[in-house]
Amino acid sequence: MIESAVISSCDNQKIKNVRKLRKKKYRTIQNAYIIESIKLFKEAIQWHIPILQIYYTQLCIKRNPELKKLLVDLGEKDISVYEVSEKVFRNISEFQTPEGILCIVEKQEHLIQNIKCILILDDIQDPGNTGTMIRTADAAGFNAVLCSEHTIDIYDSKVIRSTMGSFFHIPVIQSKDILSDIKRLKNDNVLICGTALEGKESYHCPISSADKIALILGSESHGMSQSLKTQCDVLWRLPIFGKAESLNVSVAAGICMYNISEYFL
């Protein structure tokens, strides 16, 4: 349904609700989250992500006329489509120079199943690193990303933006009890490989034979929690050949995942 009236007030109740969804509390209550940008909008359509509401500006349509038909088609599918003024859009956007399209999307439930390679993130707080690792997992052929309850909310808009669409390509799951989930993976004969300073130093994946693997990465400052470390079958450490103290966690994750892909894919 395309609304004919242009929303021009930042005090409009729908606009207030969009702003609320910037906070995890309201994303949880409403079981919804925000995506913003033309790329993510098109990715959501391509991957049949359940869009609930769309907000756009007339300037966005003028600059991207191909979007008009998409909005009409989606409006005919009972998705609420609202035109807003430039002022209102700047009020709900996180961008300094917004493109002019934003969607409210329903959260999707994913199950951990048919796993060959899974990435596990423990206590990762930086949204850019988190999104980059999800994107890299997708590129490296991993089947899913499982985030601990202490990791940043996976529905944070900066996380989703950093994935560049990969958030829609593979299951990304926020665990409610990461230790229990890892124990279930072990019971399903998944080899648990963790990265740690006390691990075996090797550039290559230190695994001889296994059918399924989970790779755990912890925060740059503290590493993975001790409770998860005790569940690992293998501890792995990338060597430092130069004088750098450490690697950025998303860079280390990329090296590790591509090494694992050589064995498992």
Would you count the extended β strands for me? 10
Give the CATH H-level superfamily of the largest domain. Answer: SPOUT methyltransferase, trefoil knot domain
SSE run: HHEHEHHEHEEHEHEHEEHEH
Number of domain units: 2
Instruction: Tell me the number of helical segments per DSSP (H or I, 4 or more residues long).
Output: 11
- Span of the ends, CA to CA: 44 Å
Structure in a nutshell:
This protein is an alpha/beta fold and 265 residues long. The chain folds into two domains: 13-106, 2-Layer Sandwich (60s Ribosomal Protein L30, Chain: A); 117-264, SPOUT methyltransferase, trefoil knot domain (Alpha/beta knot). It has helices at residues 13-20, 24-30, 38-46, 58-63, 66-75, 86-92, 127-139, 157-162, 178-187, 226-229, 249-264, and strands at residues 32-36, 51-56, 80-83, 101-106, 117-122, 144-147, 172-174, 191-201, 213-218, 234-237.
